[in-house]
Design a protein that fits this description.
Number of domains: 4
Helix content: 40-55%
Protein name: Insulinase family protein
Family: Belongs to the peptidase M16 family.
Strand order of the largest sheet: 1-18-19-17-20-16-15
Distance between the termini: 23 Å
Strand content: 15-25%
Number of helices: 37
Keywords: Hydrolase, Metalloprotease, Protease, Zinc
Organism: Chryseolinea lacunae
CATH topology of the largest domain: Cytochrome Bc1 Complex, Chain A, domain 1
Largest sheet: 7 strands, mixed
Structural class: alpha+beta
InterPro entries: Metalloenz_LuxS/M16, Pept_M16_N, Peptidase_M16, Peptidase_M16_C
Amino acid sequence: MKPFLLVIVVVATFLTCCQPEKTYTVATAESGGYTYSYVSNDPLKVRIYTLKNGLKVYLSQYTDEPRIQTQIAVKAGGKNDPATNTGLAHYLEHIMFKGSPDFGTLDWAKESVYLDSIEHMFAHYGTLTDAEARKNYYAQIDHVSNEASKFAIPNEYDKMVSEIGANYTNAYTSEDRTVYINDIPSNQVNNWLQIEGNRFRTIVPRLFHTELEAVYEEKNRGLDNDYNKTYEALYAGLYPQHPYGTQTVIGTIDHLKNPSITAIKKYFDTYYRPNNVAICMSGDLDYDKTIAAIDKYFGDWKPNEQLPEWKPTPATALTAPVVKDVYGPEAEWVTLGFRFNGRNSGDYRMLSLINLILSNDQAGLIDVNLKQAQKVLDPGSYVDFSNDYSAHTFTARPREGQTLEQVKSLLLEQIEMLKKGEFDDWLIDASINNLKKQKVQGSENNYSRSNDLVVAFTNNIAWEDYTAEIDELKKITKEDVVKFAQEHYGNNYVVVLKHTGKDANEVKVEKPAITKVTLNKENKSPFHETLLKNPVDKLKPRFVDFDKDVQKGKMNKDLEVLSTPNTENDLFTLTFLSDVGTNNDPRMDVAVDYLQYLGTSKMPVAELKKELYKLGCSLGVEAAEDETYVYLEGLSENMEKALKLFEDLLADAQPDEEALKKLIDGKLKEREDQKKDKSAILFGGLMNYGLYGAKSPFTNVLSNKALGELKADELVDIIHNFTKMQHRVLYYGPRNQTELIAVLNADHKLPDALKPTPPPVKFEMPEVKNPTVYWADYDMVQEEIMFLSKGGVFDAKRIPITRMFDEYLGGNMSSPIFQELREAQGLAYSAFAYYGTADRKEDNDLFYAYIGTQADKQSEAMKAMKGLLVDFPRVESNFDVARNAILSRIESERITKGRILFTYERARKRGIDYDIRRDVYEQVQHFTLDDIAKFQEQQIKGKPFNVVVIGDKKKIDFKALSTHGKVQELTLDQIFGYEKVEKINVEGPHQ
């Protein structure tokens, strides 16, 4: 089910006519002994420093909560890999988490000798061509690697950043850049900088051969991803002479099989230098203290005076369409792309505008002519901006009986309309203001803010130009758009036709034999010990006070109104929330989807969407299993006008039989497509089957037959009755409660008496008595496996120990499961375990453990995971890390803005009348490892597990599967239930 979601756009006259044109000029200033530049009228108030060694520092202050989003950006990525040794940048990203000569090691002097030997051995390994000789020599590498591992402290970096309270620790490598990410408490800036300043000095390829296995797994996951294959084909066609198209970030299989540590070190020494790096931070920071600390830990980092200048390969013009065919198990689609100049070019502004004229989810040419008219499935477009070139990409899926060529033609027709100027003039102003509104929303999020800094640095965009980009769009006229389109959108495109079928070129990275390495889990390096002793000003946690932070009131008919103020800007969100979902009526999600194709007796749907687009507001409707909510958001000054339109739609939506027929036909095709979606099969169908059996919330859907019998009046009646049933109002915005209730009383129409909500269908998880392994066949390189069990009935008293258990056992890269399965044995790219607390007080908790592994590692990986679930891994140092991580995060996190209301709602579902984090914070301080072990013994250890597996039946080891329970294949009809559920006659307020 896809929610009805309309893009928010600000009224053109509000931002362009009522405000004077801003100027963005660069100035310099000095504070705290450091000189910085800044830009006038910059809403992010960014200060840009350049240290003596060339290191760029971008700082932006935002005090929403005492946390700081950090991103360290290296201006080098996959395109900088030599063509003869691809994948270096990505390998290096992984190795950067292995530590340094100061941490991650018990004895660097001894360990380094082994690591030097391993480097030379891999160099020799790359020269071998005989398969048996390579196998025998890799066994020698494995032996030396095991000796080296005796001196390694795995994941010490992750332990340290977790202890200081970091969230979302990660990194990514693109074609143009490599970026290292942490979200840290504001009181831990010095500790974080001490860690980062140390690891960016020297690369240490520690535990290299097990991490190599992780990269192999990542490559195989990419080979199982039809989207990944599609975009590799698209880029190969768009950039035939450029590394964007001639090589991939993760590298070729041949290069992965012959990694060069020496080449990786050379890459590091070349590009990981201060004059090629920027530290980008946004959050509750002190400018002067932060830059001084950065200078302390990074100031003596030596620059590369011979930093190579990147010169992009000139692109040969595309003079005729390039057609590429891709095959894989997922449903078919079309992807079509045009090549343009890079992010730091005039093309950026024009493409940003043109893309919204074509596709803005509401009033663009593609939205009106293809999506609203239901001519194809999931049409849309976007621009992938890269440094050297950009791609304007169009996608859509065929409806039943439609060919990929027909889909392609329909997409191209919209571009032809653009070239002829066949679009409303006001779309330009509306699209510009939509981008401006997105900037305002992004400024409320520290990740978005810091990412802006990364984009500006890595794309060589002066901050004054970056800040002024949207305002520069105002200079573009319709004539400019049409001329640009006529000049740049011709037969110069690449189209990838994604077919459902066997990939004749299927390959995989084979598993080398490796021995489990030593894990010194309990040890800490002197660097780590010193870090823990550093003095830190302690932050005090702040919990939501449901009595003070949630304003409670009543409007007409005693309807509950909950609100919290927006004191930051003039944006609002108004939500009508009902406890009726698909478990109450499985027709609900169909009605929600139907609404997007309906108008009123006074206004056709296309006109309605245009009016909302002009008002700078958006509306949406979404149905979940246990609730449905409709919401309106946008500019506060236009709330009344938008609310009237929305109320008219909910009360006066007019049935449209033709739209319904197309909707049902599209849904039937989407259902067939979903049966080809690996994630939907595993995390939707198989997981629910393993927990509930054949009847579950997932299969509580209308059968295909019942879906086809739906009537327009029937669905419209559901829509009309939404606000006639019991519901409540949630509001986040600048108006006070009195003003809000006055608006609601005037515009939110209610019946004389609100109808009660129909009762939901209850689904119970049965106890696992006879373990079963449910499996589904899927054409893939890897296998994905889950162990599942029913938990106890929800108990709020269990939440603190549950949080402690999840953080300890499977919370991050320093957890025992990740360390054992990935670090020690190289058995999986992704592995974790989670005890999930129920969302409602009457429901059961659940437990699941996940492994994504190569098919030839299935037996080993499952055995290792099962062992960890049965024999609780006791690692005292990991427990300390987990506890400190929870405490530090709670001390620094703040639930603000509209999240306050949904925190309150979630607590009410669970029968809790206070912020449960208070209990977590108080109890975690006193937990011991014995407490976690006891929880594991009570909730997990003695319980049998159902297992679900998705993989290629030719590669699954069924004999090994049978050791975990009775093996049963499930058909796709069994998994999804479309053909098994009979039409439900719902009695009550919907009739």
